[in-house]
Design the sequence.
């Protein structure tokens, strides 16, 4: 299933960043991170990720090499001479779920203005990672003939850019968000009612990411669920949601059709890639998988819910 | 599947109480509640629940009738002349999950000393509802030849009666508890590791109840999951955990065998009965079901996780 040949193009726009992370059990200093990074590495086992993002001159050959090893296309990655790459610093609480942002330095990301090359505009699958909705819209303006468009968002944009978000939501097929964000966006505390309101806003499908509790997908006549992989060791959950969305979109691209079966499998692929993302800092675990390991975890998820 | 004839005996010990409940959306005054009540009504669609509990003289014919309509055996329900029934008063927060206990009047329950009649001692299935572990042990001392014993507990007993709880855990087959309680009992924040520790304490299976997020079951070589039914209307979640356990144990009793398939079905039955418990105050919804309605919701759960 994870054939490396003839992978369909998956355009991924988002952040490529350096993360400095403290957890109660360890630390990482300026490790490769960002929404586009996690999504692209996760998707790379299923599709050909083509990143549109911006980095500074401090983004070195080592980081590039990591993408290249996974066959990620970096032709859309702008490098700003003399600029510094987006840097996020955060600290996780004892429960490894709640976290505090200690520092956010947008650096070159503050001037990010995505311009797509001709070949990128024709990507059949598009994932708009968690960046401002007006930037997401600007990418969509340039995209032609996309078959499936996914969008991830967060509490910041729901509160600070509600109108822009509403406008871009009308133009996408799949919205990824978590329980609290669904509540924040709709005012509905129950996930079923929140999802119905979101579907009325435009997306054909809404995927509610619930971390260690799994994920739900709602469509007009569809309700699917996948549990999270129970993990014995959580090193760093940063990027798990991005890896989920990247795995989901990559799986949909590989499937080439949108139906109950492909969506159900995409949920399992997403939660599988999210589980690998949690097992190391940065993309260290996520970038070193093989098809057998991925398939084994997907099969385990299937066995957990087997009738 | 929900045959009313020849239901196997399921002994249920726990509280039968009156609940006064405030939610942001409504109130109930001295409504029928208690762990044994919710468990017995939920189990009644699958097994013959035989309650062992205590009530006061204020426990009227109307409450009794509700049990009798569901074919619940009350021969083990002691009535204390001149006594008052256990009364719990609580208030739910806006999120309908967190709640404050406003008042707990144990009344006749303070002197509860379960003595089983000869025929009750021979029940093949036993559910020890959420009461003090020394009382649970006292029931187990009297039980003969039980095929499957389930036990529910809570944070209060884990902190106040840890030794008694550890002792009784060695003697049961299935432990029901929630995420936080599993963490509290084992010191392990990850549910997989917590479950492994719990299995080492005695139970063959541990069921982690996660409310709106579903439920997990772990055995030595088993990991099963069922999502919660997404509800469009939550009236009162009181008793949902007891209804879950009652449905689970009733389903296991009806199945008559302990294996992957019967445990998986019992999880779906449990989460289904919990969902009905949330849709009204007291057992108003839970006591008025028919097999078609129950089967429909079980089938929906199966479709949610279908591969």
Sequence:
């Amino acid at each position: 299933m994870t054939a490396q040949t003839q992978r369909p193009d998956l355009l991924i726009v988002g952040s490529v960043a350096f993360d400095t992370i403290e957890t109660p059990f360890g630390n990482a200093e300026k490790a490769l991170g960002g929404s586009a990074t996690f999504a692209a590495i996760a998707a790379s086992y299923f599709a050909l990720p083509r990143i549109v993002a911006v980095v500074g001159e401090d983004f070195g050959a080592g980081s590039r090499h990591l993408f290249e090893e996974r066959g990620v296309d970096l032709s859309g990655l702008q490098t700003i001479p003399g600029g510094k790459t987006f840097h996020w610093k955060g600290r996780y609480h004892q429960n490894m779920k709640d976290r505090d942002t200690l520092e956010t330095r947008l650096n070159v990301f503050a001037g990010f203005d995505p311009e797509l090359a001709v070949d990128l505009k024709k990507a059949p699958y598009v994932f708009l990672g968690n960046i401002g909705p007006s930037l997401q819209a600007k990418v969509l303006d340039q995209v032609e003939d996309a078959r499936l468009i996914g969008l991830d968002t967060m509490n910041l944009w729901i509160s600070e850019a509600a109108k822009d978000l509403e406008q871009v939501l009308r133009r996408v097929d799949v919205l990824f968000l978590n329980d609290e964000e669904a509540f924040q966006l709709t005012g509905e505390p129950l996930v079923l009612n929140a999802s119905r309101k979101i579907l009325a806003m435009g997306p054909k499908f809404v995927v509610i990411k619930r971390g260690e509790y799994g994920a739900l997908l709602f469509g007009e006549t569809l309700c699917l669920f996948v549990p999270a992989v129970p993990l014995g060791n959580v090193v760093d959950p940063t990027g798990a949601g991005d890896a989920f969305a990247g795995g989901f979109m990559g799986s949909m691209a590989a499937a080439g059709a949108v139906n109950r079966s492909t969506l159900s499998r995409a949920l399992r692929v997403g939660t599988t890639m999210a589980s690998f993302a949690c097992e190391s800092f940065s993309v260290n675990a996520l970038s070193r998988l093989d098809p057998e390991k991925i398939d084994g975890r997907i099969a385990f998820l299937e066995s957990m819910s087997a009738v």
